Amino acid sequence: MSIWWSLHLRREAASVPLARRFLLGTMESAGVDPDVSFDLSLALSEACANAVEHGGARGDRGEGADTWEAWEEPSGTACGQYRVTAYLDGEKCRIEVADSGPGFPARRALRTAAQQHEAEQPYASTQQYPPQYAEHPPLTAEDGRGLCLIEQLADHVHFGNRPGHGGAVVSFDKVLKWREGALLMVS
């Protein structure tokens, strides 16, 4: 058995805990280990907070935005709204948050501090790193840590832009652990 759902939410602060509670309820009902549920719900909260903050047209904060009509494609592109999709199966949970904002700026490959140290000493390690890392904010910054936190909490993360539509897409997944007798646990 698998569980799949998609939420279309207004870009309002109240939507973030709503999405988080929906995910936690789903994982609790399915029997996912509480530690894994917590990690995924925190990563989801960070992705949703980014969509609320940055997910509309430049200067748009979501107030007074038109809602999607029932016959429109649920694409997450309506200004003032964003989409959260989650898929749980026997092995992993995959979550995607898509908005209609300006998207991510063109980025070069960024590294964590430890990886930067290794890069400065090229013969110290031969380990290769994926080309995508969230930029770490300065230590004195009051915000900007959300994408880095998502990378630490999930097993696989992708930050991208929606081709042709505009908007950012944050997708991440994590291998699931189950409580004994869990509904979706692999046999």
What does it look like?
The chain has 187 residues and is of the alpha+beta class. The chain has four helices and five strands, in the order βααββααββ. The chain has helices at 15-30, 34-54, 113-120, 146-153; strands at residues 3-10, 81-88, 92-98, 156-161, 168-175. A five-stranded antiparallel sheet has the order 1-2-3-5-4, covered by helices on one side. Strand 4 (156-161) and strand 5 form a beta hairpin. The longest helix has 21 residues, at 34-54. It is globular, with a radius of gyration of 18 Å. The N and C termini lie close together (11 Å). The relative contact order is 0.22. Residues 61-77, 108-114 and 122-131 have low confidence and may be disordered.
